Structures are given as C-alpha cells and as structure tokens.
Amino acid sequence: MNRCVWLLFRLLARPGPSPRHAGAVSAAFRSPGGLRHPSRAAASSSSEGNGGRTPDTSLFVPLHVQPLGPSPEGDIGAELTQPLNKSEVLKILNKFYKRKEMQRLGGENGLDARLFHQAFISFRKYIMESSFLSADVHIILNDICCGAGHVDDLFPFFLRHAKQIFPMLDCMDDLRKISDLRLPPNWYPEARAIQRKIVFHAGPTNSGKTHHAIQRYLAAKSGIYCGPLKLLAHEIFQKSNDASVPCDLVTGEERVLVDPEGRQATHVACTIEMCSVTTPYEVAVIDEIQMIKDPARGWAWTRALLGLSAEEVHICGEAAAIDLVTELMYSTGEEVEVRNYKRLTPITVLDYALGSLDNLRPGDCIVCFNKNDIYSVSRQIEARGLECAVIYGSLPPGTKLTQAKKFNDPDDPCKILVATDAIGMGLNLSIKRIIFNSLIKPSINEKGEKEMDAITTSQALQISGRAGRFSSVFKEGEVTTMHRDDLVLLKEILNRSVPPIETAGLHPTAEQIEMFAYHLPDATLSNLMDIFVSLSQVDGLYFVCNVDDFKFLADMIQHIPLTLRVRYVFCTAPINKKQPFVCTSLLKFARQFSRNEPLTFDWICRHAKWPLVPPKNIKDLVHLEAVHDVLDLYLWLSYRFMDMFPDASLVRDIQQELDNIIQIGVCSITRLIRASEATSVSGAIAVPDDFPLQRTEVNDRMLNLEDLPAANREQFSSATKVPGQKRVRGSKALGYKSAEVQSNMKSHGQGSLAARLVREGLLTQEMLKQLEREWQVHYNNNGNFPTGERDNQNGSKGTGKKK
C-alpha cells in the first residue's frame, strides 16, 4: 500500500515528464502540459517578439523566502522515500548550477545570468537550510541521489522558486503593457474629442509673443493660462482682474477664487502642473513651451499640450520648439499655425567687459549663477557706496517682487541689481545692461548628474533679453561680461543657433504605479519606479523625465507605513532635497500623517520655532528661506489632504510674516555677510555645506583652488573647463583666483590681510597690484625679502645671506 502511495506522489509531484536531456526539458517547458502556467512562462521569457525593452535586471530586488522549519505533520517526503543526505544534495545543486543547458533554459524563461545566479543562491539556501522539503522536491532530489532521476529534473522546481523571489518574471507582459508610453495622445480623450486650433507664437524674449496670446485669452468667454512660475501665474491673475475679466489663481500651494460665493471664474491662471485637462475652455495659453525638454518638469508641458480641452491652444516660446510641436500635433491630427515675432527693442553685445565694479552705472544687472557669488558681489558693490537689489531663486516670491520694485523705482537710490538667472522669467525689470559675472552654470543632465558647463545659447538669450525691455525706461539693451576674456565666449555663445528641441518629457502617473504595485506588492516605491522606467517604451518624440528626486523622497519615507497613493503624493512634493531642514520636515509630516494625527497650526509653529526674528547673519537667512519652503510644503499638502493639514489659512498668514522678515534680511544682506565673516574662521562666511563660502576677494574672485582638498582640485578644474580655452576658464569665470596669484599672496604674507582690506573697501585691486610691484622691485634690487618675509619663506633655517 505504501508503495502505491509513493508511486502516486511521484506522478503528481512532477510538473512534466522527467527528461534526461536539456533539449527534452526545454521542449517539455514549451509544450502545453510542460508547465503549470505555460502561457505565463512563455510571456515572461524575454522581451523579444513583443517589441518590449529588455529589462534592466539589476533593478529586480529578490524577495526573501524563509526556509521551512520543523512541521508538526512530519516530513512526508522522508516517510515516502528516505531522509536526504545533505552533502549529496549540495553536490547535485552545484552540478545543476554549472550546467550550461540550465543557464540557457533559464534565459529563455527570463532569467539572465544575474537573475539565474541570485535565484540559485536563494534556492540552494532554501534547500539546505529547510528542516523538511515539500514532498515533490524531496522525491525528485531522492531520485537524483539514487540515480533514478537526472539533475535537469530540478529545473521546474528551481523556476518555481525563482518566480517566488522575482514575482515580476510571472507578469512581465502585463508590466510592459502598463509601462508602454508610446501613445500619449490617447491618454486625453476629452482633447481628442474636439478639433483644436493650435497657434504657435514664436519669438525671442521681449518680442510681444506672450502679449498677443494673452490678448486673445482675455477676449475669450473662458480661458486658462499655464505658466512655469508662480510669479507668472500671479501676474496674469492680476492683469486679468485689472482688465475686469474675473480670473482665479491656482498654484500648488494656493487657490484664490475671486467670486465671493466661491464659484469658479471663467478664467484661471495656474502653474502648468496644476492645469485641468478635463475642464473645457475656449482659449488656453501655454507659456515657455521650450521647457517641454526640461529633464525634470518637461512632462507638465507635454501633458498640457496634448491634454488641454480648449478650442484654441496658444503656445508661446522659442522657435526651436516649432518642429517638435508640429510633429506632436500631427500625431493628434491637428495643424499648427505659426506666428513669428521679432524683438521690439534693439540689444547690443558690447565690445568691452565691465572690468571692475567701479565701472557700474544705473540700470546695471550683474548675473551670477550661484548664491555665493551673489553674496560676494553685493558686498563689494556696497563697499563702494552703492545700493543694490538682490534676487535669487530660493527667495520667497514676495521678497523677489519687493526687490524688483525697489530696483525699478526711479525715486529709489537703488540702481544696481545682483541676481541669478531667476530673472530670466517672471519679473518685469528695468534693466539697461546685463553683465555676466560668469558663464559657467551648474546644471542637471537627463541622467540626474550635476554638470559644470558654459551656459547654453538658449539660456544666454533668455537672460540677455531682460535688458532694454519694451515696457522699461531703457529702450535699448546692452550685454557684456565682468571679465574681458569671457567676452569672446559670450559672443560665440550668442552667435550660435539654438538647436531644435527634439523630444518631449513624460512621467509615470500614480495610476500606472498603482497597477505596477498590484503585480509587485512587495516592491518598494523607489524600486517600482526604477522597474517602470526600465521597461517603459517611448517613441522617438518622447523621453521619460528624470525621477531621481522622486526616488530620493521615496527611499527617505519608505519605512513609514503609508498607502501607495499617499506615498506617491508625498514623493511628488516640490522640495529642494539639498535643504536638510526641508527634508526632515517632510519626514516628520509623513510620520505624523501615518499616525492619523492632523498637523495643526500649533504643531507647525512648534516645529518651525515660530515666532522667528530677523536674521543676524547669512546662516540665519538661509534657515529662514528653508522655513519658508517648509510652510510652502505644508500648504502644498493641505490641498491634497485637507483633513490632515487643516490650518492652511493660518499657516499662510505666518508665511506672509516670514516673507516680511526675510525681506528685512535681504535689504541688509551686506550687514549679514559682515556678521558672518566676523564669526567665521579667516573671514569665511558661516553657512551650511550647500553654500561653502570660505572665500577671499581679490580681483573680484572669491575662492582659491588651493583651498579645495587636493583630491578635488584637478577634478574641479576639469569639470569647469570650457573647450577652446588655454586656461581653466571655469574656475576663473566662477570667480576663483589662479594658484599662482594665491601662491604669491601667501608668499607676501598678505593673504588674509589683503582679503580683509579689499572686503572692507580700504584696498582696491589696483592698489594691491601696486604693492605687489613695489615688493617685486624691492626683491630685485636687494635680493632678499622685505623685513619679516624672510622667516616666512625660509622658516627657522633663515639667515642673512642671499638665496
């Protein structure tokens, strides 16, 4: 009787015939009866034949399968056969792993070399560490040990285990379908249901292209304006209501309904991420369409362009986007009418550089590409008795507007502006001359990597175009550089043609990620996003936007128990991951949310240590800007989880107060810099690591390359090198002194003293050069160092003899 039961188990246990050769095993697996799920095995075999991308299997994170412990029912396999000799089993498993036929068969079932190895390690550990095995596996192993079976017979059980630790192998076809991004126009049925009129207003900055589109927007019965910045949305919001066209405002952090009863107005001005693709409009305006290529935000322009349900869609931006927009609209069956515009006022590239801040005049704007240079240049300007306004990206919108108003006011003594490229959009400024302090700008490429390179032609034109705007008091604009040897490069950049934009950005939606999670319930959100991007298929007109910031936040809050949809929303929060206080705040928000405890006004006040006081130094100012961002984050989340972030109006009130406090700090920024210098070592400004300000100012340069760690000098120099230049232009353009100058300064014993005197305005560069020439003459005539220098050069071994 036991023998019959044993035979019955052997018949039931085997998923298919017991082939002796790999060819037979392969055939059995491809036959209808060879697998328990033959259709799925075939589907998950590879991407060949279905047009899918070969997945990046390094993203497949194996799940842990716990070895079986002792069973109260006993070891049925051992009862039917005999206990296994684990040393013999180990030899069998290792033999199985080494067989090329098994590796090839694994490849046919979706297991490349990496996955095959990981699956085998897990399978071997499971077999060797389990107190007992399922009857079918035990019987097969016993047969092989006794010579009644072949090592290849293990493959069905190995594959079953591999699919346990890599569940994506069993649903690869479904995952590919979910991540198929080849037909984005089909995602927007409301827009496809109507025949839209597409008008492209193409032209440079200050050509009136947006003005013409807005006039059509104001004349329509209903309309939506989509811009890249809150400041632009606010501008159109105010302009519409001033023109007696009721208009609402919608940004990520703010909703303003002009109707006192709360009804929606016929017009809305919004940031582009917030536009509705289901609401019908007569006219839609999409501003700055060239940003459709942005590695992080390009998807928002693609969504608006393909999805806005408007009878007329007016697109404004660079002519470089015309061909791409035309092709995208061809895929929707819509024609594009192109209207070209020319600049309304002339702009001239000067033949001379500024050379010195002593040559500044009213209406000048010095453009820097990092906050450190903003601090340094503004400090030097005020040391010359001039007032300057300051604008950079991390300032609150209210502070930016206040500084712009101060600079534009003809009755205000402030006639100089120091700004980053934040002035390129969203602010109306009365600038006569743009002066590039540097032509090197840090940027993030499509892979999410930071690069230091010369600004692009598009960026140079956008910034230069702010000079001599049609609506300003200056009817002609001028452009130059701070340093003479940058001027040649600037002219070269501006003379290049802007390369055509070739692709539009896409981003996985929450619904797509949820469907992924249904098939891969144990994967982390970051891993889901990685696999999605790896499997995604796009045609030649699109690219998948960079998701590094999303993954950074996903990893940061992974340990907090949240639903997938809530986790996804938190990860799309627009925060700067380089600000530690903002990141920790998001973490605390998520933790509080997971406990189902509302984040009240009192809670946020305790967290931000409200009330706050005006900053005493630059570090305080940077922290206040971070607190403002945290309040922005609260407001952003309050519109997505109103019950958990219930005090948006109160938070907005203190955010306005904080904006005023920051304005006080920015208005006295040079005092903050001096205070920072006084409390730091060797005149270095004490601010967080994101803003290393250990700099000296000689010849308007700010950081010595020698101050960098030795391992970083060569890397930094090569990273900032601009092709075609003999010298490392990057370091010079960024305001760094040459090593030779620094060496001379140190040898003269003037490093810190000279820097301090220059900073305080008591010593100019010309005076410093004169002192250097006098020192050199003294050395040439006498053959020795001036008094006190000799010991510095020769140390304790110094004597009175000539060298």
From TrEMBL:
Its main location: mitochondrion. It comes from the Eukaryota. Pfam families: DEXQc_Suv3, Helicase_C, SUV3_C, Suv3_C_1, Suv3_N. Its cofactor is Mg(2+); Mn(2+). Keywords: ATP-binding, Helicase, Hydrolase, Mitochondrion, Mitochondrion nucleoid, Nucleotide-binding, Transit peptide. It is an enzyme of class 3 (hydrolase). One of its GO terms (molecular function) is ATP binding. It is found in: Mitochondrion matrix, Mitochondrion nucleoid. One of its GO terms (biological process) is mitochondrial RNA 3'-end processing. One of its GO terms (cellular component) is mitochondrial degradosome. It catalyses: ATP + H2O = ADP + phosphate + H(+). Its EC number is 3.6.4.13. Belongs to the helicase family. PANTHER family: ATP-DEPENDENT RNA AND DNA HELICASE, ATP-DEPENDENT RNA HELICASE SUPV3L1, MITOCHONDRIAL-RELATED. This is ATP-dependent RNA helicase SUPV3L1, mitochondrial. It comes from Chelydra serpentina (Snapping turtle). The lineage of its organism: Eukaryota, Metazoa, Chordata, Craniata, Vertebrata.
